Amino acid sequence: MVIVMICDLCPRKCNAVRTEHSGDGFCKMGTLPVVARVAPHYGEETCISGTRGSGTVFFSGCTMKCKYCQNHEISLTGKGVTLTPKELAKGYKMLEEAGVHNINLVTADHFVEAVAESLDIYRPRIPVVYNCSGYTSPKTLSILDGLVDVYLPDFKYADDALAKKLSSAPNYVETATAAIQEMIFQVGKPRYDDEGMMKKGVIVRHLILPSHTKNSIAVLERLARYFKNDVLVSLMCQYVPCGEAKKDPKLNRKITRREYEKVERVLFSLGLDGFTQELSSATEEYIPEWDFAGN
Ligand code: SF4
Fold first, then answer.
1. Domains in the chain: how many in total?
2. Residue 28 domain flag
3. How many Å from the N-terminal Cα to the C-terminal Cα in the chain?
4. pLDDT at residue 290 above 60?
5. What number of other Cβ atoms are within 10 A of residue 104's Cβ?
6. pLDDT tens profile 169-207
7. 141 alpha carbon to ligand 1 midpoint, in Å?
8. Is residue 6 part of a domain?
9. 187 alpha carbon to ligand 1 midpoint, in Å?
């Protein structure tokens, strides 16, 4: 485990000094993982959650700063319990013994080295899912090569100016495209086990934002152009106004049925394979409760 590092792990390349418990980079996190929840989760795509749940580990802090972050309570504050790679590995084992379908690492980019070490200590017999924002560098993803089975990245924007405005994420479009290319290179096309659970592959998620259907359509067009037969696309409508978004008149509402159907029609017309959601999923009940327990 790296004790002190000059960090260039994510595309921000802050070159910030990070020690085990503190960091002065954009993400403000130290190198030891901080975790807000370790528990089965049932709100993922059916081939990930199944009947027994996905074994989620929610990491605190983030390399993006989305105004509307649905998990803002942990992404912005960095609140949680600090774990060593060995303790993290114990968490995977505990989830596996509880019978979940997979181990699902949520927003771990800024802790990727400790995560790789934890998977070297204990490699679960069930698939490892890496759930991230898509704002990741291929070089950092290469640390996970051979350790991750299923990638679950977001593709939030097809417009760099919008990515900068809403998520403080410069050069998002090319960065996320290159990251997904690397993910496909590592795990290949979607494959399933006998129960229909995903055992290898990439699912790209896109959350539709209110008043931003043009962006959503451009995202789908880009996914079709670059990755059509290699990934599944999960179109999400579960947006609820959170955090700073409540102060923005364009973002301070749920999406309408009309907005959702407009984007969904494009998904179908482009022949993209994947998942859609019921509009009724736009409720705060889908946001996990943070127990900050780490086990
Ligand atoms: S992981 Fe954090 S400190 Fe490292 S480059 Fe990214 S934002 Fe900066």
1. 1
2. no
3. 21
4. no
5. 25
6. 999 999 999 999 999 999 999 999 999 999 999 999 999
7. 14
8. no
9. 25
- Ligand 1 contacts (CB < 6 A) are 7-10, 12-14, 16, 18, 23, 25-27, 63, 110
Pocket test for ligand 1, best of 4, 12, 107, 143 (most atoms within 8 A of CB): 12
- Closest CA to ligand 1's atom 2: 27
d(CA 99, ligand 1 centre) in Å: 34
* Assigned domain for 10 exists: no
Across all residues in the chain, what is the average pLDDT? 94
Give the pLDDT confidence of 43-62 residue by residue, as tens digits.
899 999 999 999 999 999 99
* Ligand 1 atom with the shortest distance to the CA of 12: 5
| pTM as predicted | 0.94
CA distance 213 to 286: 22
CA distances from 54 to 46, 48, 184, 194, 248 (A): 10, 6, 21, 17, 33
Q: Report the atom number in ligand 1 closest to the C-alpha of 109.
A: 1
Q: What CATH number does the domain containing 245 carry?
A: 3.20.20.70
Domain holding 50, by residue range, is: 33-286
Measured in Å, residue 217 CA sits from the centre of ligand 1 at 30
From the list 108, 104, 163, 111, the residue with the least C-alpha distance to 128 is: 104
